[in-house]
Input
Amino acid sequence: MTQTPPETIYLADYTPPNYLIDTVHLTFRLAPDATRVISRIQFRPNPKAENDQFFLHGEGLTLISATIDGAAVTPQPVDGGLTCPVPNAPFVWETEVEIDPAANTALEGLYMSNGMYCTQCEAEGFRKITYYPDRPDVMAVFTVRIEGDAPVLLSNGNPGDTGKGWAEWHDPWPKPAYLFALVAGDLVAHPDAFTTSEGRQVALNIWVRPGDEDKCAFGMDALKRSMVWDEEVYGRAYDLDLFNIVAVDDFNMGAMENKGLNIFNSSCVLASADTSTDADFERIEAIIAHEYFHNWTGNRITCRDWFQLCLKEGLTVFRDQQFTGDMRGHAVKRIDDAIVLRARQFREDQGPLAHPVRPASFVEINNFYTATVYEKGAELIGMLKRLVGDEAYDRALELYFARHDGDAATVEDWLAVFEETTGRDLSQFKGWYELAGTPQVRVSETWENGVYTLHFEQETQPTPGQSDKVPMVVPIVIGLLDETGVEVVESHVFEMTESVQSTSFNGLKNKPIPSILRDFSAPVSVHRDTTDAERTLLLAHDTDPFNRWESGRILVGQTLAKMATDGASPSTQMLDALLAVARDDTLDPAFRALVLSLPSQEDTSASIAASGRVPDSLAIHRAHETLRQAIAQHMQDILPRLYATMQIEGAYAPTAVDGGKRALGNTVMRLLSQLDGGTTAQAQFAAANNMTQQVTALNCLVEIDKGADALAAFEAQWSHDRLVMNKWFGVQVQMAQPQHAAQVAQRLTEHPQFDWKNPNRFRAVMGALAANSAGFHSEDGASYDLLADWLIRLDPINPQTTARMTAAFETWKRFDVDRQARIKSALNRIQSSANLSRDTGEMVGRILSA
Ligand code: TRP
Ligand code: ZN
Output
């Protein structure tokens, strides 16, 4: 049999559903390898339908019986589902199917994790549970009955009747099938309660495996803070009597916003001082907020089709970023977000996987849950808010919620509420949704007869399938400083709309120093030739914290690129500038930690590639080590005292203030390790009373190749804790010396606790290998081969996780011909493996077509 190539789906081909659904009744008779699912669906013809064909999605289902209005029918199996002649009037469709959750390793549909039943239906997993129009524009009211011997039986909505071995659930809010969820197992609740601003009493629970009860309190607190925040900031209250969160060990991504029953990767909800780092706490808080915020931006207003994914994801990421900023401080949050955007989204935009925030086509939608859709999608919301102003943004959101509540909406609907509330024409802005690529903005200046002019030019490189780009609307926040560092022109937005444009300033005594793209006001790259002296002045005096950090980052980044390419040494001026930041006790420690941490080796590699040269990962690795050594030496007089003043007496608290002190203390510890051979790190490792202090010390020791004892001690202490053990696996691979990375990873795959079917564990090793820049790109290609071997092995088990991890290869065109050839042969090997999934096939095909 020849395989038909997988079909490409186009946004332009959208047609409305032929049949709509009023109500769905589902009965689950749970059994690990033979679960029966009985559905009763009330259909009616859609007046907007273009034809009367009846099609239901279904995958891997064994059909037991089907009836229409009580009479047996024999549906026609077709590609991806079934069809059947149906009445030209409302009718009741009933089927019984059998599925095998125990054999479901893809973690999509109904599957089992540690003996517990759970579901994951976004984007197209519901079709693995029963026959259904599995598309987000078909919304229905679900009633669910679960029969099974598990002590806890959960589904969406409000609880209904329950008895021994069964429970019923009713969700009054119409929803698409992707928001359906079911959980059944031996779970314990961490309960709480919340009263909404509308007076609704809501029971809250975080459900976990017995033994994890002590790791729920922080998540619960984050949930309640999210509920208050959405009421206060967006006027959105919760709308059911119950909100459940369940922690699951085997999960492909972070978490899922199923209505009233959010399901979380256990790594994204379980938290304790002993087992979680500051970064984990912050991430957990943000993800809990994110999933909760989806209740309005995603669930009450959903997406018409999967091309509109950014409608819910970009907006919800933007909202969780605002929340984190409010909880923990906006300056540091904005810098963190810019670091992530550049590391992941700019990288994506730069390579063969570049795609618009709203793609025009896809083969497998799971491959489009990307940094572009999520993080760049959030940037578009931020730009829109900046362009229309905060007050107009609030009014537009009010209208969006009022008009589209209960709808499956589009990006056009979203932009229309802004156009209507502000009178602004957003047709050019829409380009941000439709064109891939990061605009490159080149800036130059003139100073003539007392007039200072900034000249801007924007250009976006071609991306796959899009050779012609048009200018974007770029909100560029600008301020000006004088030569002593005093601000002479405050921040204001310059709206760039053309390819070439300038803006002038009068009335200045002297030529000023510009601070451009303050607050990272647009997801663009700015290029401007200037002096180290100017950067140093901005690092010392800019009133905008983002650009203050950015000036330091450019100084250090350019130094690293020069060191790695032509063996330059760091300038004393730059080292002095960093020293001045380190000793400035008026600055927030978290901010100082960000200034004093080097960019990643991957950042350096990308910037060398962007300048048209071939990055040498090993030389970059050495440059980073050398620079860290130089900084440490330059600061050696202040480091011990700075380290000491950042130590916190007393109990651990996961607050931004304490976390900031730990971040700076640990940045200093890493520098000190260059001088003291690891004695500070060893002492910290031994004395640590929380995971942040323990694991950062371990990192440091492994980095300087003195980790053996600490690794053994850590393993002995934590071998019972699967989440902590992920850190143990990860650190060894990520911090391994480049020439050993592949071997370390390979050896760890033989460890008894390397459970490769668990995505967290697989990523802990293979994700860490890809993140060890010099180790991954080691000259012999050993890491490429190892990763390819494991992706080939994982693909038949879990296509979604395999496909995501192929992005490790997306930068391959940056490298020298030998490495390119090695990567290409690894990719070819994946591509030619038998029965390759559609997910991985699409990714590898796109990467290779570079
Ligand atoms: N909608 C989820 C979120 O962003 C993400 C998601 C999509 C997901 N598909 C998934 C999560 C599959 C887990 C598994 O919050
Ligand atoms: Zn989301």
